[in-house]
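PT: before anyone asks, these are the final sequences, not the draft ones from last week. 794 residues across everything. Please model them as a single complex and drop the result in this thread when it's through.
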Amino acid sequence: MELKHKDAGKVVQRELMASYYGDLEDGEGPVAYLFVPGNVVEILRPFGFRTVYPEINALQCGIKRVAGENILKAEDMGYSADVCGYVKNDVGICLAGGSTPLGRIPKPDLLVCNFSGCNTFIKWFEALADLYDAPMFLLDVPYLRDEASYQQDIEYVTQQLWDLVAYCEDMTGTTFDEAKLRETLEYSRQAEDLWTQLLSRARLRPSPFDAYFEAVFFMAPINVLRGTTDCIDYYKVVIEEMEERSRAHVGPVPQEKFRVVYEGPPCWPHFRAFWELFKAWGVVGVASTYSKVGGLFETGIRHDPARPMESIAEYVINCYTNWNLKKRSELLQQYIEEFEADALIIHSVKSCRSFSVGQADFREVFSHELGIPTLMIESDLADPRYFSQAQLKNRVDAFFESLEHQRIVRGS
Amino acid sequence: MQQTDHLSSVRELAQDVSFSAVARWKEETGGKAIGHFPVFAPQEIIRAAGMLPVGVMGAWGLLEVDYADSRVQSFVCSVARTTLELGLTGRLKELDGMVFTDICDVARNLSGVWKRNFPEMLVEYLHLPQNVTSAASVVYLERELERFKGKLEDLSGVKVGEDSLWEGIEVYNHQRELLQRIYRIRRESPWLLPADEAYLLGRAAAQMPVEDHVSLLERSIAEIEARTVKSRDNIRVLLLGPFCEQPPLELLRIVEESGCYVVDDELLQTYRWYTSAVPTNGNPLRSLAESYIERARLSSVRYQVRRRREAIVEWLKEARAEGVLFCSAKFCEPALYDYVLYKEALEAESVPYLHLEFEEKMSAFETVRMQVETFVESILFA
Ligand code: SF4
Ligand code: SF4
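LR: through. Structure below.
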């Protein structure tokens, strides 16, 4: 059967991202930098800001294999080998005058430090504020602790969102357009619905796509273009592609043998090789936490034009790494049940303590207390130097060999 | 000789990784003890709840990390790993609770690991505002402190009254004042008080009721001020690093032996957090919250609007320091990021600096000695 929509998600995304980076290079309007988790782009769009997401640049530089060079530039300046490679990649871009294979990244007129789930974000934008001599607005996002603190946290973030509005009004000399905000929020909401629908399709057997290796690719528009109609249209295209894959019984591997849940970011600089380690065993990711760094929409979190600021505050607080470890671990458990996974794969990356501290403890919980086969491997999401293919292959092979063996024993 | 005895008992207490002083205090008073991870804790509230605040900041390099290895990866700072090791080896069994604050991703996630591994403890994570300009911050922090107070009340079954909060604020104000005097001595006549001794005097606070620490400081200050020691022509340096993880004593000693006087530092931030006295009028929690926003010291783990490059240059002038020693704990991100910003500022001002990395359990002291000596010579013979 010929697939009409084959690679549609890829092709359309390529166009969208090219036009996004094109606009950064030649477009007009002030430039705001912000972080993906908990970003408040809906507030910035009505002011006409063009938005830069340094993490997306870092990820793209990783895939395009220039992160290594950027990181070295930052290390020459004095950054340690032991700090987050995403930060160093970005400092490297700054030192190179903004030039990247993605296009020239414009300087920030404003740094919006929405630090949801990662304190390193603060250190990152503090460094950029210094390097670019740009103003920084710090949106303080409390870590999600418990029910007792949630309400006070929402109120605190909401008030700061109004502070940000006032700040932007002042800076741009424009009055805040609430109608425009509501419209933007409505677009966000629709895209979030579609994105959630898409991810839930990994429940099917076989899953039409890999909810880690492909989902982290499909997530780009929800992270970069949220609040636009392009973003909505994109997910319609991808859902069509997946529906077609399902009809044709096509999946990410020729035969789905193992269904797994992935915790932790992928290794961007060796993305293909990293994926191959698993593909070789017929492994399909059915859920992943990294695809949720930009928001935990499956829990019902939505941008909502009827409750503009409050819904933004709820969104901001409910990003995966801003959840406490207990909630994170329960979510993993839920994924394993709902998506009928055979194992949990934890990819621990040195760069990101926000993700990785606690993962070793997860391994204790899942493998010892819950009896779920769990594999923990290490490399990095940004720094190509930490990827040791032979070692990883040994670990992955041994793990799936043993799973396969157990299956045979149980089956006979 | 009296002085040496005095110091050795302080050393013993400060370095006791079995926390026997805490056990004794609990036995004598019947009170509960709350541990706190660096670099900040609202000790005033813990004390007002009739509990003993206990600073838990690693293990002085005295422990091998065995158990904690299975819970926290190797690319994490020592203080997180050894603090966890203290817990997993039963050395913190006297603690009824443990408090963490939002200083970095490691400390934050450690609070979660702690919660799961020590279900019998009250484990609290306090979010201290990083946004220091919003009108909402003080109100928010006051609520956060109120929430914390409530947790302590639940634990003890007793309401915390305003009077005991004021009393706590006053005694901690007094403690900070005395510590400031110690630091003034270091600034004005550093030869009177070696850096490691000054550190131990402050660090003793971690395991003592604040009143006892106050009288220890009072006695010590009188004794130190009466000393007759000749000054050496050491160079004056600032010793920087967030010092959540504590540098080995040996390192402090070597810095001085190699020709530096540490005239100010970022050590013991927990006990020196407010740069001036917390006001004793109005509402006590509001006063603490306001002070956290308005009187907090410069720290790598708290955002501040003023650019760090300006802050460090000012600090240098104020302390009349000739150079800066950066001591970053291995893998400590806040330290390692700020180092770059600071160093850029120093280079612009032609101020000499040296960057050292340390771990709790380190052995390369001779290398450190050589590095510091070379640094000192480069300044003396510049
Ligand atoms: S520590 Fe993790 S979340 Fe934070 S900037 Fe680095 S990669 Fe991103
Ligand atoms: S030493 Fe640094 S990284 Fe470690 S807990 Fe303290 S501040 Fe965080």
